[in-house]
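Sample intake sheet
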Amino acid sequence: MLGVWHFSLTVSDLDRSIAFYQKLGLKLLLVQEQANAYTSRLVGYENAHLKVAQFVIPGQPHGRSNHDLELVEYIHPKGRRQKPDICNPGEAHLALTVTDIHARYEQLTADGVHFFSPPNAITSGVNQGGYTCYFWDPDQIVLELVQPPPSD
């Protein structure tokens, strides 16, 4: 194992999601369409057609890959959203670190982002002294903001 190449999320409207993730502070690197034999073999769908966007998190060190997050919209076959409850097997979330979770929460709430709760103080465990909260992206993909505890 060499490391993590990137994290990928399937979205229903790539343009809408690009705008959302840019508002979060991610930098868009590349948008491309993939409709070829390789992609069809990779995803296991005949005549697959995908639109893909790649992002970096500014200031994040990069290893062998040039991007941190990939968003994929399936043009063919068109998927449908299953029940998005975080407790369901197969659901995941992406945690993003911030320096001022309360300010980011206020800004995103003003932009209409749906949060599960306001920032929560972490009162036990390795991140005690930090703050965290979950929220949804436009496709009800769960994201998390984390303000790490102060360093000693």
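Comment: The longest helix spans residues 14-24. The two ends are 32 Å apart (CA to CA).
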